[in-house]
Design goal:
The chain is an alpha/beta fold. It has 10 helices and 15 strands. It has a single domain, classed as 4-Layer Sandwich (Purple Acid Phosphatase, chain A, domain 2), CATH 3.60.21.10. Strand 14 and strand 15 form a beta hairpin. The protein is globular, with a radius of gyration of 20 Å. The structure holds 2-acetamido-2-deoxy-beta-D-glucopyranose (2 copies) and zinc ion. GO terms for molecular function: acid phosphatase activity; metal ion binding.
């Protein structure tokens, strides 16, 4: 009888192990970052659209990132894509990797893991080179995948490959060639990605849910909103209580609040060339801050508080925003 019931329990146990591993096994690769200290706080910088061998103020932005990074004692750095101009990397031995990354972001405080997504310019080169683990032998900070998840205890980050969503890169490439290896057939790629992101967001129990992509959902800058993401991605983010969406692509800094959900749209694309000079007047959400020049963003998270700061090329604070989770749920 005892043998019988323990056999029965074993079967149940095996069944539970099997079902939990299969249901929580998403297609998206997962990484872990331990939070700091007993309070589980996290701090990181976000920079985008940068790799120009130090030119267009890239080195100045890097210098200030180093100083702010020192103060904040960073956990890691996030790159919102367009990592290497003009056409990504030509291969894993392209000197642009070291000239635009290793030799530019030299500050001690920036010697942390960098989590990067690909931008449209990265797709114009040998896309797979940027994803190749061999780059980590040259600079161990580098980690770039198309889409992946970072679990940092109080926060979970969902990095999304947004270039394949943009119709014009496929329909009117305007003389540019894109390396879509691993993306075609495009419709399957997008459908699978959306399904994986939706599942992962739904299953996430993190206090803060943060989504990172290269293209803006909302932007008042040169490229404006990305309609494909507004249509296909935004509803998933809203339905799953995403707190922050972070992107680059427009070479500026901006903070836009959604008027229909708590999600905040944050553009940090000021890593090098900027000053485009075309602010779009019309926007369907609430533009809290827009800066056309170079700079970057810091994020400090605690269990109950998120503080977001934008800095210019001299390290000056341009915009600061605080949100409390407790206040939000009490409202
Ligand atoms: C570098 O930054 C300064 C200060 O914002 C700006 O005046 C200058 O135009 C920038 N240079 C370039 C090449 O963007
Ligand atoms: C913003 O958050 C920080 C913690 O990150 C806190 O020290 C600061 O007092 C807050 N500021 C405001 C204005 O609420
Ligand atoms: Zn871009």
């Amino acid at each position: 009888m005892a043998a019988m019931s323990s056999f029965f329990l074993l079967i149940i146990g095996l069944f539970l192990v099997f079902t939990t591993t299969t249901t929580s096994f998403a297609e998206l690769e997962r990484f872990e970052e331990p939070a700091k200290g007993a309070d589980g706080s996290l701090s990181f910088l976000v920079v985008g659209d940068w790799g120009r061998r130090g030119t267009y103020n890239q080195s100045q932005v890097s210098l200030q990132m180093g100083k702010i990074g020192e103060k904040l004692d960073l956990n890691f750095v996030i790159s919102t894509g367009d990592n290497f101009y003009d056409n990504g990397l030509a291969g894993t031995n392209d000197p642009n990797f070291e000239e635009s990354f290793t030799k530019v972001y030299t500050a001690k405080s920036l010697q942390k893991q960098w989590y990067s997504v690909l931008g449209n310019h990265d797709y114009r080169g040998d896309t797979e080179a940027q994803l190749d683990p061999i780059l980590r032998k040259i600079d161990s900070r580098w980690l770039c995948l198309r889409s992946f998840i970072l679990n940092a205890e109080i926060a979970e980050f969902f990095f999304i490959d947004t270039s394949p969503f943009v119709d014009s890169y496929f329909n009117t490439p305007e003389g540019h060639t894109y390396d879509w290896r691993g993306v075609t057939p495009r419709n399957n790629y997008i459908a699978n990605l959306l399904k994986d992101v939706e599942t992962a967001l739904r299953e996430s129990s993190a206090k803060w849910k943060i989504v990172v992509g290269h293209h803006a959902i909302r932007s008042a800058g040169h490229h404006g909103d990305t309609p494909e993401l507004v249509k296909q991605l935004l509803p998933i983010l809203q339905a799953n209580n995403v707190d922050l969406y972070m992107n680059g692509h427009d070479h500026c800094l901006e903070h836009i609040s959604s008027i229909e959900s708590p999600i905040q749209f944050l553009t940090s694309g000021g890593g090098s060339k900027a000053w485009r000079g075309d602010l779009k007047g019309t926007n369907s959400d609430d533009v809290k801050f827009f800066y056309d020049g170079q700079g970057f963003m810091s994020v400090q998270l605690t269990q109950t508080n998120a503080e977001i700061i934008f800095y210019d090329v001299s390290g000056k604070i341009l915009h600061k925003w605080n949100v409390s989770k407790e206040l939000q749920s009490a409202m």
